[in-house]
Amino acid sequence: MNNNIKKEPSVNQVERFLSTRRSGLFPILSAVAVVGGPAVLNGQDDSADDEVFELSPFIVSAEEDQGYVANVTLAGTRLKTNLSDVGAAITSITGEFLEDTGSTNLEELLIYTGNTETAGVGGNFSSGFEDSDGAARGFQSGANAITNPQGAQRVRGLAAADQTRNLFQSNIPVDQYNVDRIEIVRGANSILFGQGSPAGIINSSTKQAIFEDKNEISLRFDGNGSVRATLDGNMQLIENKLAVRVALLNDNFKYRQDPAFEDDRRIFATTTWNVTDNLTFRVNGEVGEIRANRANPFGPIDGISYYLNEVGLETYGINILPDDPRIDIDAIPEIDFGGKTAQVAGAGPRIFVQYGLNLNADGSLAGDSPGQYSTRWALSPNAIQNGNAAGIDRKGRTNRFSRTDYEMATGIGLQPQSFADYSIFDWKNNFLAGDFAFQNEDFEAFNGAFEFVSEDGRFGAEVAFDWQHQEREIQKGPTGSRDYVVRLDVTRDNFDGSPNANALRPAIALTQTMSGVIDQERERNAVQLNAFARFDFVRDAGMENWLGSVLGNHTLSFYASRAESDFSRLGYDETWEGEGIERNANNGLNPNMPFGHPHRDVGAAVYLGPTVTSLDQISISPIGFSARDFFADGQVSTLRVWDKASQDFRDIPHTSTTHLASASDSGTEIETTAFILQSKLLENHVITTLGYRSDDVTNTTARYGSVEGTSGVPNLQDATYDEIAGSDDYFSWSIVAKSPSKWKLPLGTNFSVFMSESENFDPAATGRLDALARPLAPPTGSTEEIGFRINTFEDKLALKVNFFETSLKDQSFTGGNLLGQAILQTDARFRERFQIGVDAGYLDVNDPVFDSFGTVPAAVAEEINLRLDESGSIYIWDNLGNITDTTSTDAEGMEIELMYNPLPNWRIAFNASRQETVRTESMKGLRDYVALRLPDWQNVFDYPQFLVGDSVLEELAWEPGEFLDIDAFAAAYPDNTIGGHYDRNLRVPLQAIVDQDGGVVTEQREWRFNLVTNYTFKKDSALKGFNVGGAVRWQDEAAIGNPWAFNEDGQRIVDVSNSYYGPKEENFDAWVGYKRKVFDGKVDWKVQLNIRNVLADDAPVPVTIDAFGNVAQLRLPALQSWYLTNTFKF
């Protein structure tokens, strides 16, 4: 028997199929004797190809899976298709695999699958270090691991895969309680989705109501005190006609980091109604809520050690600040690194304005003095602007905390470093943010389908609809991101001259309290038609000869859909209101400092421990209060402020007021038509799949005006909408060639080879503009796959080997704030500063260089709505609008997936993957912008970048009525020139990004493999009822940094030809279970103990290494955990 060739059902078989529908056996499949097969691989047991009756062609069900093996999929053509007939890279994960490994969500699953990575606690990479914010910079962007953990994943080193639910796009987190199977489609696939991530798709298939009465209850406990309960009940209400199924989830999950948690409660219901023998109606719905304060997998940034270590103490002493913190700090010491000067981290004070409350970790006031408020930022690293600005009288504080970062003269330097271990703060077991943050979510989903299949199975159609609504409320953490920096308060005196009672206490700056709060709302609506027609030359054309066998049978599908997605995001801030604000408002650049101005943000310093003078004295406590509770709207606090009128300090009540700080609203509408032809030729030895797809996309984006009299507070009643339409079409194909049955290869071996090509695009990026406001095409993805399958040892072993090349072209990539530095700061803002210098009398309005400022290209100025305010001297703008930049990523590699069943009760699953993912063509638009504007900028490189203070003017012997000696200023203060600003904030960071083109993406591991096995003891064994299993997960060393090198011009650059690597990682899992009947044989009871990361090492895992080879950022390793699950089926 040739087990590799699928026989199409004959007419008699079709009639038999229909009779089984009428007899009530549909859609339940009998389990075959073969046990096993890995969900984590595509190796298929092709012996199942004989006698496969295609029941409903529009769904797949758990009843069709065999152990770990899923032989059929919808992900190939949107119709039920044998996986062995598809050339795409598809991995199907069955419910049994999820149960054995204890995987309840994508975070727990993706550590076992090939070429996939997932972030968060227990994950295998950090996430967020290669994204639209730039390369390997990443602390803020990685907050995705906390706010959207299932979206913080990466496939083939490219990007996060899109998530779908029953092949409808979705952002609802996946949970095993209502999922039959999960499929990972790696690479672009325009047959499924013309739009979406080129990294691939992760589709979860929800459970179906079946015609059988069965129920399941499970309880799970773990070592951290978590309790998870699920219920799954299925009832046949009318025999073979109507069935309903209800599933419940109550998951109270506790992280090892106390007090982090995630509570997830859901209810899911579904029904199947066979209206007639040929017409079926299916519908399901889910309602859920998540309340969480998720753990941070990353170590807090160490702003203490460099200040207290031997170098810091010897060079600077413990009291590095002058007694009066209001005077200039002119001599921040410097040391030498390879001929380049650099400030030592922790040596100079972090120039930080004091503008809020002093609090202890429990929320009580720290010290006797009221919070002290200043509207003044120090304007340069050495605080030369701390003197009074021309004509402005104010009292400000130049510093607050010890520095945490190096800022090299080249701009490519050392990075902020995490606590190297758990000795100063045990961030393995404690969450530094404490109860401060929250991530809440409410969602509901409704999905249904009408299905018609003709009696002979030759044609059919399905009309499906889907609606999803999701609301999120997010507070990322005390700093609005994940980079919790613990520093020392190195100030001896408060700015009012009183002693600082909190001197040398470790603290964290709440620079964004409620501004970290984000409300998101997303609604999706979709309807689709999926129709097919089948033609068999033997059956339908009567060609019962060799030609009919050659021409074979064909399935032509037509797919049409309309999908709408609306997404809104509101960000909130807390602003001080009170008399002291108005009295302190004049800061030289913005005399009004209106409501919503960032200098009015409510802030606080939270002191986490007592005074220390050496590292061994440090004791840190987590924050013990909530942002929502403490910084409530309307709370009154007393702040000490400088009263310009009385020339004295006053204690004045101030009220914290919540206001809208940012708003966005966007919508996407996609209309799709597609044709898919699958042909089985040469007696089913050659299977081809051809697909054509056309997508018409319309993107709508809102632009909001500002509330009058405020600093950029969005006015939701003043909205204009930009509508941009685009379209694209794609062609994809695959071919599978199977070995002829006549070959009679040894050991029952058969094999096949396959090839495929596909592509897709990202519709949400339609309408983008580059830095010169030139239209950008949407990002596109393409995938080429080639490989082979082998089944041998009489189908006990199945092997699939796949070679791939996947590309992502022109994805959005802003490089942090580089676009803003070029367009808004270097061009717009510095013209404003020049005008202020003219008004102060030290710059000449007739200076010809004046025309070199602010020459923003007209198209760019129009896009950002660049304009002068009412005074005619200050530039204002809306935002960068649709302006962005791009980069591209190319991945190539190999994926191996193997299943071996040495015995019917023993299954072994293995996968191995190799990848090399390289970034290219970064920031092309910005490079063009800089090339265009640089000749003008160079004319003003020696001019001041900020308002020049009285002390500097005095030092340079400036006299009223004269103009500033520009050459003398540039020689004395090179770091504070426009040229210095350009070097630090634009040229060098841009060059650092461009230099990394051609290098591998951050945290790439060339090789990784996973092995999963489970053995069930036979019924005649003394250990009958028991099963034992385990897993091994191995990862190659990770590329986490690059050293310096010098180019032919002697400039320091990133050496992408060499990399710094983090350690290899090995993780081991084990489980043991026992199963028996209880309650007089009416209930199947199973208890299983899983231990994940049995031999875990507690040492933190390096995430980044700086240019000097020093480990910078660290994350938690995969820590040992155990959980005990009891399952009752009846």
Automatic annotation (TrEMBL):
<keyword id="KW-0408">Iron</keyword>
<dbReference type="InterPro" id="IPR039426">
    <property type="entry name" value="TonB-dep_rcpt-like"/>
</dbReference>
<keyword id="KW-0812">Transmembrane</keyword>
<dbReference type="GO" id="GO:0009279">
    <property type="term" value="C:cell outer membrane"/>
</dbReference>
<protein>
    <submittedName>
        <fullName>TonB-dependent receptor plug domain-containing protein</fullName>
    </submittedName>
</protein>
<dbReference type="InterPro" id="IPR012910">
    <property type="entry name" value="Plug_dom"/>
</dbReference>
<dbReference type="Pfam" id="PF07715">
    <property type="entry name" value="Plug"/>
</dbReference>
<keyword id="KW-0410">Iron transport</keyword>
<keyword id="KW-0813">Transport</keyword>
<dbReference type="GO" id="GO:0015344">
    <property type="term" value="F:siderophore uptake transmembrane transporter activity"/>
</dbReference>
<keyword id="KW-1134">Transmembrane beta strand</keyword>
<keyword id="KW-0406">Ion transport</keyword>
<keyword id="KW-0472">Membrane</keyword>
<dbReference type="InterPro" id="IPR037066">
    <property type="entry name" value="Plug_dom_sf"/>
</dbReference>
<keyword id="KW-0675">Receptor</keyword>
<dbReference type="InterPro" id="IPR036942">
    <property type="entry name" value="Beta-barrel_TonB_sf"/>
</dbReference>
<keyword id="KW-0998">Cell outer membrane</keyword>
<feature type="domain" description="TonB-dependent receptor plug">
    <location>
        <begin position="83"/>
        <end position="201"/>
    </location>
</feature>
<keyword id="KW-0732">Signal</keyword>
